[in-house]
Amino acid sequence: MICKLLQWGLLTALIFYIGSVLAGLFPFVLLLGAVLVALCSVYALLPEFLRIPMLEIWLNPDWEPPVKNPSYTPPSSSHTSPPMSQFHQPPLDFKSLTFSARGQLPNREELIASLKSQVIGQDEAIEALVRVVMGKLAAQNCSKPLVVFFAGPTGTGKTELSKALATALSTKLNRFDMGEYSDAFKGSNLMGSAKGYVGSEEGGALPNAIRYSKKRCLLLFDEVEKANPSLWRQLLAFFDEGRLTDTLGSVVAPKNTICLLTSNLAADKIAQNPIAAKDILKQEGFFLPEFIARVDKFIPLPRLNQADSARLTVILAKRVASRYGINLVIEQEALSPLVEETFEEGEKYGGRGIQEKILDLLSDDFIDLQGSGTTTASLVVTGGVLKAQTL
């Protein structure tokens, strides 16, 4: 914005200069131009709460006024009941909601289709996620973030579903690997170092991710059970009220924030009874009751069945081959042996296990094919062994 103000100031000064040369008023107009540039420079250095809203919106259409006083406002002492019409609002039209200046928010069917094309075998989880996300996006001015907890075994698509949602909404996914915050003192990396310590002027990774988000903010807290419990106590107010205060005392109060949490805690129990995921996590006693109470939706992701595992195996085999620049064609007689070879690893470790098994089986073949300049190969069974060879 500083550059834009200076550009306008210099352009205006140039116009006055040309006019002064023509009118013979050079000294006066030169002084006026210098004063104008100085005023623009001083204005650009003012804090946000002192700037003129109309001018800011004209310079930057995405600008929003800062939160001046995020403290709690006590309710009015009046005992007058609100009108009943307040509780009878017309149904929300999701298709009319605009997501950003670039385009329109996808409707429910489009969002579901987009997620199902990227995540295999989790149709119920996808539909539950879309339901709560569309409700959050409809309430555009709600300060409380939407908190969704993905529970279930490893490799079932929890992180992949988060990435797919970010892609479908054309939003940046701010990912935080909570294994990096297992020690209490490492929480400063997330929230920011205290004043006087190295890096304190940079702020924390989480406040900065929220502060610099434009219209909406999508946060992924991956493998939350690995983080130090003290960290979640610091985030209780953020999950509840949508306010986050970093160690510098700055308050960020974003709107339209979606927090996605993933966990492998009690994975075996949840795999056996996905519907009871929330109760199982409560019984584990790992998370504080007040933390669980602030989660808006628990969405379990169960293990894949055999048909979905087979579909995922084919997709991952082609994806692994593409890393070597090879278009892999899977012959019909090789499909069943490939699924059988990877099924056990897939049952234990999901998509990650399938991918690792494919690498063990075929990486040497892919390397040889890449070295020979092959771009298209077929997967066949030779002597009872799976092999990728030139088509």
How are the elements arranged and paired?
Layout: H1 2-23, H2 26-44, H3 53-59, E1 98-100, E2 103-104, H4 108-118, H5 123-138, E3 146-151, H6 158-168, E4 173-177, H7 187-191, H8 205-211, E5 217-222, H9 229-241, E6 244-245, E7 251-252, E8 257-263, H10 267-272, H11 277-284, H12 289-293, E9 297-300, H13 306-323, E10 327-330, H14 332-371, E11 376-382, E12 385-390
Parallel strand pairs: 3-8, 3-9, 4-5, 5-8, 10-11
Antiparallel strand pairs: 1-2, 6-7, 11-12
Helix pairs in contact: 1-2, 4-5, 4-6, 13-14
Q: Any descriptors?
A:
Rossmann fold; alpha/beta; 12 strands; 5-stranded parallel sheet; 3 domains; 391 residues
Number of strands: 12
Overall 3D form = extended
The CATH superfamily name of the largest domain is P-loop containing nucleotide triphosphate hydrolases
- Please give the share of residues in helix: 40-55%
Largest sheet geometry:
5 strands, parallel
The CATH architecture of the largest domain comes to 3-Layer(aba) Sandwich
Neighbour order of strands in the largest sheet = 4-5-8-3-9
Structural features, described:
- The structure is a single chain.
- The protein has 391 residues and is of the alpha/beta class.
- The protein has 3 domains: 2-59, no CATH class; 96-300, 3-Layer(aba) Sandwich (Rossmann fold), CATH 3.40.50.300; 306-390, Orthogonal Bundle (Helicase, Ruva Protein, domain 3).
- The chain is built from 14 helices and 12 strands.
- It has helices at 2-23, 26-44, 53-59, 108-118, 123-138, 158-168, 187-191, 205-211, 229-241, 267-272, 277-284, 289-293, 306-323, 332-371; strands at residues 98-100, 103-104, 146-151, 173-177, 217-222, 244-245, 251-252, 257-263, 297-300, 327-330, 376-382, 385-390.
- The chain has a 5-stranded parallel sheet, with helices on both faces. A 3-stranded mixed sheet has the order 10-11-12. A two-stranded antiparallel sheet has the order 1-2.
- Helix 14 links the parallel strand 10 (327-330) and strand 11.
- The longest helix has 40 residues, at 332-371.
- The protein starts with a helix and ends with a strand.
- Residues 61-103 have low confidence and may be disordered.
